[in-house]
Design goal:
Bound molecules: guanosine-5'-triphosphate, magnesium ion
Structural class: alpha/beta
Number of strands: 15
Distance between the termini: 65 Å
Order of helices and strands: EHHEHEHEHHHEHEEEHHEHEHEHEHEEHE
Shape: elongated
Largest sheet: 7 strands, mixed
Strand order of the largest sheet: 6-7-8-5-9-10-11
Helix content: 40-55%
Strand content: 15-25%
């Protein structure tokens, strides 16, 4: 096992409430016999154990744990009582003690019984993959709805643990109806409290959803198309988001430009205004109870006019990650093969050597122009201009250009056009009328034509 260090100093308090943030991360992965080669595994969407462990360590660091040790525990099968074998349980107990770890992260799905048994054996808090992702989501939820969904998922997780351990106890007592003991009544109380809280959250969620719908409807009136960045966690979405907002002109005066740190209204070099949206990163094996919470944070993606699928092509699991992302898109009702809508962004090309780069360039060039991925480095900025052009082309195809005649004295009409269309040109013609060329979404074109005399349209 390799010792791991974080850059920041630990404050000695873990977010999970244990006395120490010193953590050991273990990856108990069942050996796979079927896929021997890397290529075969990628085909199956299966990941390499080392990469899986690295991801788990990354997640632990993301909740500010101090990872003092990490390692893979290969398994032939999963033990019902402790998930991993007794020898390993004992070995890790020794490590926990000598390293003074307060928490052990097990990168797998533990049953409540397994979790309890391991906590007892190690005398440390044990967090499985679901628990870990719940912690991260709790920290990342930016919207009210997201936060509520995460709390709901957390409570459901806790409750399932309570209920299951309760029925487990009941079974142990041989079904004599031996209820009412202190253990059970405490669990009953806890369960009731959780259920009450769940009901309150569900009520609140309903309200928030209604409010968001109102908010969305008002945003829908803004004619700008939305470009949403999606991708596996750590692919470089936020870095690219920052890069693109720097390469464009920020429309800071817009209402929602400041409403949400992940939405920016920007003007592309060609003059088109768009809303750029950063989103939460996808992750493999997302616990089902978290899917709703996850989706709440992805609303912009569903409404997006163009989706930028950001991939870390320098990552050995890039294919498996891409499959995961496409699955999530499908579950959101988006067809990942819709080249009208999707642009693949092959990020982190600065990390490739000359051969790797050439290989990817060839791969990209072999694809038809409409679905050609754009190679970029969000860090160095290489390829950013090509990406912007690709966005402009893709969105431009979907928009309709109209030449209008407006009475220059009609200030309200002019400002209506500025608000509801993308004004490309404005000139006074010989009769003292204002000739305007505007670009609109097909859905808005009818309204514009009805309101203004149209000269011609392309
Ligand atoms: N070398 C290199 N590193 C990059 C590039 N883009 C992003 N990174 C690094 O990759 C890491 C993750 O970048 P983020 O932009 O936070 O990734 P993300 O997709 O937003 O991740 P989540 O928000 O966690 O889903 C950071 O350390 C970045 O500095 C790139 O083009 N080249
Ligand atoms: Mg990000």
């Amino acid at each position: 096992m390799e010792p791991r260090r974080r850059d920041k100093d630990s404050d000695g308090l873990s977010p999970t409430g244990s006395a120490t943030g010193r953590a050991i991360v273990i990856g108990p992965y069942v050996r796979r016999h079927a896929a021997r080669t890397v290529a075969a595994r990628a085909e199956q969407g299966a990941r390499l154990p080392a990469a899986r462990l690295e991801e788990a360590v990354g997640l632990a660091l993301a909740i500010d744990l101090d990872v003092v040790q990490s390692g893979i525990v290969p398994l032939n099968d999963i033990r019902p009582a402790t998930y991993i074998g007794k020898g390993k349980v004992d070995e890790i107990a020794g490590l926990v003690k000598s390293l003074e770890a307060g928490i052990v992260i097990v990168d797998g799905a533990l049953s409540p019984v397994q979790q309890r048994n391991l906590e007892k054996a190690w005398n440390a808090k044990v967090l499985d993959r679901t628990g870990l992702i719940l912690e991260i989501f709790g920290r990342r939820a930016r919207t009210k709805e997201g936060a509520l969904q995460v709390e709901l998922a957390h409570l459901t997780y806790q409750k399932s643990r309570l209920v299951r351990s309760w029925t487990h106890l009941e079974r142990q007592r041989g079904g004599f109806g031996f209820l009412g003991g202190p253990g059970e009544s405490q669990i009953e109380t806890d369960r009731r409290l959780i259920e009450e809280r769940v009901r309150r959250i569900e009520d609140e969620l309903e309200k928030v959803k209604k409010r968001r719908k109102l908010h969305r409807d008002s945003r829908a009136r803004v004619p700008y198309p939305i470009a949403a960045l999606v991708g596996y966690t750590n692919a470089g979405k936020s870095t690219l988001f920052n890069r693109l907002t720097r390469a464009t002109v920020l429309e800071a005066d817009m209402l929602f430009a400041t409403l949400d740190p992940t939405l920016r209204a920007v003007k592309l070099p060609g003059g088109m205004k768009i809303i750029l949206s950063d989103t939460v990163g996808f992750i493999s094996d997302l616990p089902t109870m978290l899917v709703a919470a996850f989706r709440a944070t992805l609303e912009e993606v569903i409404e997006a006019d163009v989706i930028l699928h950001v991939r870390d092509v320098s990552h050995e699991d890039t294919e498996a990650q891409s499959h995961d992302v496409e699955e999530v898109l499908r579950s959101l009702g988006i067809d990942p093969d819709d080249e009208q809508k999707l642009i693949e962004v092959w990020n982190k090309i600065d990390r490739l050597d000359a051969d790797g780069r050439t290989r990817l360039q060839n791969l990209a060039e072999r694809k038809p122009a409409g679905e050609r991925p754009v190679l970029v480095s969000a860090i160095t900025g290489e390829g950013a201009d090509r990406l912007i052009t690709a966005i402009e082309t893709r969105l431009g195809q979907r928009r309709i250009v109209l030449d209008l005649v407006v009475d220059p004295a009609d200030g309200a009409a002019v400002s209506w056009l500025h608000r509801h269309t993308e004004v490309m040109e404005k000139a006074m013609d010989d009769d003292g009328k204002l000739a305007m060329t505007v670009r609109v979404d097909p859905s808005q074109a009818g309204k514009v034509r009805a309101k203004f005399p149209t000269l011609s349209h392309h």
